[in-house]
């Protein structure tokens, strides 16, 4: 009997301990569910449905609470707090910045992301050095004999040679003389061109041998010329010999002018207004050209 009593006492103590250790989670959840159901469905209570039945249905439908530790391992609860929103926005912001790398590049390079200066650079004026080079490459004006103006007669070779009256005889020299003799006036006589020398006053003409000279103070038929433009530039002189025109060409030694049948040699008749000094030329948009 004593053993049975001791066993019953130990069982009773065990039951009491178990009841004390049982967590009130289910009971509290049941009470909370009753409050929630009463707030969400007020109409059901007014119809007289007993609350015990609601609690029973809630207890049957709900699963027993799980261990918070295990719940964290299985799935993470969604956070609706402001902190979660801040974390979400902070994660999205780097993506937005990465979507527009070109804009940031334009800001650094161009200064204004909404304005592209590539077209304006193509349309802008060339640098000053390019303008200087363009001027140096500019061609001089076409030089032809103009009645009423004075001119310098020169070959079209490089370097040119100048037709100068020296000691009473015209000849080609590498550079003009400081004493003058390289300026020829262009005049018209009965429709023909004449070329008196500005220094001596004598006219260009030709002798019976067909050599061009400058000895006459008054122009005759032998001092009359006509000019024709050559296709590749320059002007040719012709004289009337009997019934035909003879061309004026440079002699074989390159020192004088002579007559021959056919076309003449192209010459430049440089307007004396381009003389920057007695020994230099200055064409528009070109550097000065030294004559000696």
TrEMBL record:
Residues 1-150 are annotated as: Disordered. Residues 1-14, 42-56, 73-86, 94-117 have a biased composition (Basic and acidic residues). This is Uncharacterized protein. It comes from the Eukaryota. Residues 118-129 have a biased composition (Acidic residues).
């Amino acid at each position: 009997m004593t053993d049975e009593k001791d066993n019953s006492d130990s069982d009773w103590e065990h039951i009491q301990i178990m009841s004390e250790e049982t967590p009130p989670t289910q009971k509290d959840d049941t009470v909370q569910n009753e409050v929630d159901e009463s707030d969400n469905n007020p109409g059901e209570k007014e119809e007289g449905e007993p609350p015990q039945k609601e609690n029973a249905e809630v207890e049957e439908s709900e699963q027993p609470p799980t261990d918070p530790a295990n719940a964290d391992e299985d799935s993470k609860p969604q956070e609706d707090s402001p902190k979660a929103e801040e974390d979400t926005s902070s994660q999205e912001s780097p993506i937005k910045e990465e979507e527009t790398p070109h804009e940031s590049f334009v800001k650094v390079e161009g200064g204004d992301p909404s304005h592209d200066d590539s077209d304006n650079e193509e349309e802008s004026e060339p640098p000053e050095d390019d303008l200087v080079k363009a001027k140096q490459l500019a061609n001089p004006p076409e030089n032809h004999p103009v009645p009423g103006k004075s001119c310098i007669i020169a070959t079209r070779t490089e370097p040119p040679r100048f037709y100068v009256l020296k000691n009473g005889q015209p000849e080609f020299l590498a550079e003009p003389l400081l004493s003058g003799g390289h300026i020829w006036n262009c005049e018209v006589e009965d429709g023909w061109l004449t070329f008196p020398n500005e220094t001596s006053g004598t006219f260009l003409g030709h002798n019976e041998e067909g050599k061009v000279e400058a000895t006459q103070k008054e122009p005759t038929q032998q001092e009359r010329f006509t000019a024709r433009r050559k296709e590749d530039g320059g002007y040719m002189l012709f004289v009337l010999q009997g019934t035909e025109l003879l061309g004026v060409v440079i002699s074989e030694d390159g020192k004088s002018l002579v007559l021959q049948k056919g076309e003449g040699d192209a010459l430049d008749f440089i307007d004396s207004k381009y003389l920057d000094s007695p020994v230099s030329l200055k064409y528009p948009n070109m550097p000065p050209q030294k004559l000696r």
